[in-house]
Amino acid sequence: MLWPNARIRHPRNVEIQKQVAAVRRDNPESAAWLGLLDAALGESENGAMWDAAVPTPASERPIKAPVLSQTEITIDARAARSWVRRLLTLIPTVNPRRIDGLALLEAAVCHDDVRIDALAAAGGVEPHALRVLGQMAALPLLQACARGLASALPATWWEGYCPVCGAWPVVAEYTGLERKRQLRCGRCGTGWAIPLLRCVFCDETDHDKLGYLTPEAGEQTRKIEVCHSCKGYVKGFTTVRALAPWAILLDDLTTVPLDVAALERGYHRPPRPGYALEASITERGPVGGWWRLWRMVEVVTKQPPPTSTNLQNLRQPPPGGAA
Known about the structure:
α5 packs antiparallel against α6. The protein has 323 residues and is an alpha/beta fold.
């Protein structure tokens, strides 16, 4: 079977191009991750396809559930599989034919690492690599959902996890002259405000159990918020205005020394998302496509050839049947 050449879209936004190039120059060890992010940001500019997939929020979802919880996301199956396949080709050790693109997309949207690891095992892929790739694959869809569902968000949101996709925040922003605290999601880019003296992860409000770590060099615009109760941490940035969604992930990468400082002192980010979405992705357009055809062929080729014994069994009538 001949595969079409992978056609990765690159961002047309000049500012994104400049920032990605600068980060790549300063962080050559992160070239593979930046390649995936660059592709995801370029795909995000293909807005019509992803905007069409934004679902209607479930009317019966729990009061503390994000708006994507229990939704059914109907997506152009062929286009979505094509996008995931193009992304998979960026990892040389991955065979795109062995990974179901829609299954990976759904598991990534739900932040379900167990399902992603199962797909990795079935496809012979290193699990962590597929987790990272899955999150990049979901980025265009999640950011479209954040745009399309902004009007459906509650007026106030007191939870530490994202009101759209349920992820924990990547950063706490302090914006403007008043330095209002706003949490930002690295997946969908959503921002939401919660009280200053309150842990994002365990809701601790005792100021004696909350603190900050600051760089030794006296940097005043970067710090680490820490909680002594749950040992969680989140990075804090002071900005003039809110970061663009694409800039959140780039800033997260360029401030890895803050993560290292927090980890060395026993703090950590939670391994699981703040809320399990239980969303599903259904197909619109031609059902199945190349992946289902490939899997059918693969299954057939793995069947043992007929033998004289099982051919005899095929000719024998079932018990109690007519001779």
